[in-house]
Amino acid sequence: MPSVKGFSKSKVHLSPEQKFLSELILMDDIFMRIVLKDRKCTEFILQTILQKPDLKVKTQSIQSDLKNLQGRSLILDCLCSDTKGTVYNIEVQNDSHGASPKRARYHSGLIDMHILKKGKTFETLPESYVIFICEKDVLKENRQIYHISRRIEESGNSFPDKTHIIYLNTGKTSQDELGELIEDFYAEDPRKMHSRILSQRVKELKETNYIEEGEGNTMSSYLERLKKQWK
């Protein structure tokens, strides 16, 4: 595999597989999942979206399968928790229908069902965030980011159930850290990324067709899935 420099200077000499790989961006949801296998990338994205530079990811699962024996199950792009016990679900959605408000509600509810163990009180439920990273402005208010939390209508005070939903509209940029993150989501060339953490991870994947230890030919299998998805 040629170096990243080769992507920009000699794409015509790349094999079809190499060209396909060089053009992947983080907004390709399957590629994002591979990138997020590096916990530092997940951590950086959460720190930037939530404006919490001290946030540290403690555990995470990619494509976490949440079973529901009485109804619809879900496979989550990324489910993780931080050192304070707060739970986060990150979803990349290029289809507006896949990020509807009712889907966000279902994600939040099913996550709670899987977190609360038998015999535990409801007060042990942790704070949770469902975060949709969207190609389009799903909520159509021309905002870059939307923070949704429950409130008491009569007083305007927050309703302390500790559940939050966030929509990031990547169609709207800005001259700040969040705007730079959005630009990184669409960058093909890792050298043009603002984030050193994301750049290193994407560079590694694109240069080496990286295979993670113990997981088999991860990148190759995902490439095959992406090819079928894009046909």
Given helix and strand content, the structural type is alpha/beta
User: Taking Cα atoms only, what radius of gyration do you get, to the nearest Å?
Assistant: 19 Å
Strand order of the largest sheet: 1-2-3-4-6-5
- How many strand elements? 6
Provide structural commentary.
The chain is α/β, with parallel strands linked by helices and 231 residues long. 35% of the residues lie in helices and 19% in strands. It has helices at residues 4-9, 16-22, 29-35, 39-50, 101-115, 177-185, 196-208, 218-230, and strands at residues 57-66, 74-82, 87-93, 128-134, 145-148, 163-169. The chain has a six-stranded mixed sheet, with helices on both faces. The two termini are 24 Å apart. Mean pLDDT is 87; it is low at 1-11 and 210-216.
